[in-house]
Each structure stands twice: as structure tokens, then as C-alpha cells.
Specification:
Largest sheet: 8 strands, mixed
CATH superfamily of the largest domain: 2-enoyl-CoA Hydratase, Chain A, domain 1
Structural class: alpha/beta
Order of helices and strands: HEHEHEHEEHEEHEHEHEHHHHHHEEEEE
Shape: elongated
Strand content: 15-25%
Number of domains: 3
CATH topology of the largest domain: 2-enoyl-CoA Hydratase, Chain A, domain 1
Distance between the termini: 67 Å
CATH class of the largest domain: Alpha Beta
Number of helices: 14
């Protein structure tokens, strides 16, 4: 069993570590470029799957670029894509940026990567690179239903349109020339679109570097960051690359869906085992620490709001009330479970996603809900299986109360004095319909009639005593 003092020490050490790393990170962020006369270009890598962790990296990179007064942001990209909601958040951040954003596609910008690239002010690609293939697919690679494709088509089209157009007068005709053709962007999602000289029906667009340049989706070929700067006409520059700090690595580790699922299992498992053991000890301590590790990084990143954490706490309180204060399991228990699941689920979802399409928000919530519910069920399953194995062993059998209090040995949970009344007679103090009150040996007892309705004042006889209840019958005259 772990004492409260030890738990406090562990919590203090953990808090001290987090504050130390945070202070170190703050000093790193506040560092100014060494050569203020140079143009500062801030480089952000997107070299892995697009997911909430990547969205967090990009968001922090933009914040640091603004603090350092960077003149340009360069996204170094090589990705096969990822989650639409995370890509949409990054896209919005780029479109709303006051700092011009360039992207260098260092091999691949597929799917969600294509969406992010199109949102940038200028695109440069390595020789042999690719951009496109933005059809929404599931984990098996199969195309999702059209309602998902419709949202992605609209997002790709509006992103291309955000870069503006030119209106040209050709004789009596007005010609609109988009800087990035929205139809081409949409055709990166929809294989039904036919664009003469660009793509036939039945295929989605994936451009090579040459094709992207020819169709306005690439400003130039560049095989290094230095060549990107030359193509962009930027001279006397300094590159500062976003570096992931120790605290950020720790946070990224904790917000990994797999790790979040494990933490949820520890939270639930700790509560379960605490109910199986006397006192307050290691299981509840593990559950509390897991809850802190689950919610702390989500709260620090702005994902978990105060009200979402309060939902979780309210759920735990209601479950505890149901278990310890209210017999059975009813409204309070089921409400507590619902609030606990809601708190864990909504804390995992970036609230920014609710500003986008309802379908995207629903998809994000369902994914988080699946992780939470699956983790809860696995936690309960493993806890039950593990408890049977642990408490069956002789060495740790003392952790649980397993002594049988046999009634034959005198262990009872109710007053057994009424059992001595069996065979005695008395009087019905009230009408028994069939329950009421009787007087036996000048004492009043609750009783139940075995012979139906018994009028007040009639003589009764105690027939038997079961589970704290006297059973009587009318005495025939």
C-alpha cells in the first residue's frame, strides 16, 4: 500500500520535471536569430503521417516563427497523407498566416499532404516528386462513401480558389484564369472529372514535378532548400529549423492514440482493483497518475477544456456514489458512465474541428469514442481475468477479503431475535393487505400475511421468519 506522503512525493517530482523542461523550452523559444540583418526563414518539417501530433507540431512552429519575426515559413514535406481533420486544421493555419508560406515537396505530397501543399503561397518540388491522389480512403485503402469525398472535393476546390484569379479580356469574351485551377484540385479527389489535356475520367490526378509546373501547381523545381531560396528570389537569408524539445517529445508520446488507450485502461483498471482491495493503495494511485498523464498534455495543447475534464470528474463521482451510497445500480451509475466516456472522448478531440464541416467533426468524435470504449472494455476484461489469477494465488490472497462468514458459526447481517417468535401468537395492530404490523409479546413488528387479508385486532400466529421478515396467518376460532 502506498501512503499519501509517498504519492505526494511522486507527484511533486513529476511536476518539478515538467516545470524544468518547460522552462528550458521557453528559453529555447525566446532565442533571437544571431544575425538580425539577415532574412529569417523558419523551416517546419512535415515528414510523417498527418495526425493530431503533426497538427500540434505545425501550430507550435507557426507560433515560434511569429515570435522570432520570421519573414517566410518553409514547410519541408514528404508525406503520404493522413487524417483529414488534422490536415484541415493545418490548411486553415496556413491560409490565415500573415507570414508567406512556401512548401518544398521533397518526394511526396499525397492525399492530405496535397491539401496542405495547395494551401501554401508557393510550391517547389524536387525532381521526381509527386503531388495529388487526395481521395479519402479508410485504413484498408478502400475509397470512403461519396459524402466523405464531397467534403474533400469542396475543401480542395476552395483551397485552390483562395489563391485568387485574374480576369482577362479577350475580344468580346471575359476569360477567368485561376492561379491554381480549382477543377484540377477537385480532380485530385474525384476520378469522374474530365479535363482535356490533363486527365481522363476514371483516374485521379497525381502530378509529377513537370506536370505540376505546367498546370500551375508548382512554382519551380528545386532539389535542396538552397535551390528553393534561389527560385524564390530570397537572398542573404538564415534558416532556422523547428526543433522538437524534450517536453514536446514527451507530450507527443502521451497523445499517441495507442498510449492514450493504455492510459484509459490503467485508469479503469486501477479503479476496479481498488474496489477489490481494502484501504487506499497502489491501484488508485496508478489510476490518478494515469488520469493526470492523460488529461495534462491534452489540456496544455488546448484540446481538453475545463468543462470536458469536469465531465470526467462528475462521472467518477456519480459512479462512486452509486457504488458506496446507493444500493443496486441505477440512474446515477449509468449517468456516471456516460459522463466519464464523454469526458474522455471530447478531451481527445480538437475543438477547432467543430468549426469545420459537421461530417469532419462527427468523424473525429467517432474515432475518439471508438478508442475510449475499446480501451474501457479491454480494461474491464483484463482486470477481471487478472484479478482471478492474482487473488487465487496464496502469496497475495491477503490483498482481498476472502473470509466466509458462515451463519452456522453465528455470523449474521440482521437481528435474529425475531426468529424466536416463530410459533407464538399475537394481534394484528393494523390491517394486513398482506403486509402490515403485528403485536407479539408486547412488541410491534412488520409482518406479512400468508392467508390473505387480515383485519385489525384479529389474532395471528407467527409461522416463519425469513430474510428479516415475519410471516403470519390468521388464528381460526
Amino acid at each position: 500500500m502506498i501512503s499519501n506522503h509517498k504519492i505526494s512525493v511522486y507527484a511533486t517530482l513529476l511536476l518539478t520535471f515538467v516545470l524544468f523542461v518547460s522552462a528550458e523550452d521557453s528559453l529555447n523559444i525566446q532565442q533571437q536569430p544571431a544575425h538580425s540583418s539577415q532574412v529569417l526563414v523558419y523551416e517546419i518539417p512535415i515528414m510523417n503521417e498527418i495526425d493530431p501530433r503533426m497538427w500540434r507540431t505545425v501550430k507550435r512552429g507557426f507560433e515560434e516563427a511569429e515570435k522570432l519575426n520570421a519573414k517566410y515559413i518553409l514547410i519541408h514535406m514528404n508525406t503520404y497523407g493522413g487524417r483529414v481533420d488534422a490536415a484541415d486544421s493545418i490548411r486553415t493555419k496556413i491560409l490565415n498566416s500573415k507570414i508567406p508560406v512556401m512548401v518544398w515537396i521533397d518526394n511526396n505530397a499525397a492525399s492530405a499532404g496535397a491539401l496542405i501543399s495547395i494551401s501554401c503561397d508557393s510550391i517547389y518540388m524536387r525532381k521526381g516528386a509527386n503531388i495529388g491522389a487526395a481521395t479519402v480512403v479508410n485504413q484498408t485503402g478502400q475509397a470512403m462513401p461519396d459524402k466523405y469525398q464531397s467534403y474533400m472535393r469542396s475543401t480542395m476546390r476552395s483551397t485552390a480558389e483562395a489563391h485568387g484569379k485574374d480576369t482577362l479580356i479577350n475580344g468580346n469574351d471575359t476569360v477567368i484564369k485561376w492561379r491554381r485551377d480549382p477543377t484540377i484540385a477537385e480532380a485530385m479527389v474525384d476520378p469522374r472529372i474530365y479535363i482535356p489535356g490533363v486527365i481522363d475520367t476514371g483516374k485521379v490526378i497525381t502530378f509529377t514535378t513537370e506536370e505540376a509546373m505546367r498546370n500551375g501547381f508548382c512554382e519551380g523545381e528545386a532539389n535542396s532548400v538552397k535551390e528553393v531560396m534561389q527560385k524564390a528570389g530570397i537572398k542573404n537569408y538564415e534558416i532556422k529549423e523547428y526543433k522538437i524539445t524534450g517536453l514536446e517529445k514527451f507530450i507527443l508520446f502521451l497523445i499517441n492514440p495507442l498510449i492514450q488507450g493504455i492510459l484509459i485502461m490503467i485508469i479503469v483498471g486501477g479503479i476496479y482493483f481498488e474496489l477489490q482491495t481494502p484501504g487506499i493503495g497502489f491501484p488508485i494511485a496508478a489510476s490518478i497518475i494515469a488520469a493526470l498523464l492523460y488529461f495534462a498534455p491534452l489540456y496544455m495543447e488546448g484540446l481538453a477544456q475545463n468543462w470536458e475534464i469536469m465531465l470526467f470528474i462528475a462521472g467518477v463521482v456519480l459512479i462512486a456514489i452509486e457504488i458506496f451510497a446507493i444500493p443496486g445500480f441505477g440512474v446515477a451509475g449509468f449517468t456516471g458512465i456516460a459522463l466519464l466516456i464523454a469526458g474522455l472522448t471530447l478531451s481527445m478531440v480538437d475543438n477547432m474541428v467543430f468549426e469545420f464541416d459537421l461530417l469532419t467533426a462527427l468523424n473525429a468524435v467517432l474515432k475518439a469514442f471508438f478508442i475510449v470504449v475499446t480501451s474501457l472494455l479491454l480494461a474491464l476484461l483484463f482486470s477481471i481475468m487478472l484479478s482471478k489469477q492474482l487473488f487465487a494465488g496464496r502469496r497475495i490472497r491477503g490483498l482481498a477479503l476472502d473470509t466466509i462468514q458462515d451463519a452456522a458459526e453465528g455470523y449474521v447481517g440482521v437481528d435474529m431475535m425475531q426468529k424466536t417468535l416463530v410459533g407464538k401468537t399475537g394481534v394484528a395492530q393494523t390491517i394486513l393487505r398482506p403486509s402490515g404490523k403485528v403485536i407479539v409479546d408486547d412488541e410491534i413488528y412488520d409482518a406479512k400475511s400468508l392467508t390473505g387479508w387480515i383485519a385489525k385486532g384479529l389474532a395471528v400466529k407467527v409461522i416463519r421468519y425469513e430474510t428479516g421478515q415475519l410471516y403470519v396467518s390468521k388464528v381460526e376460532e
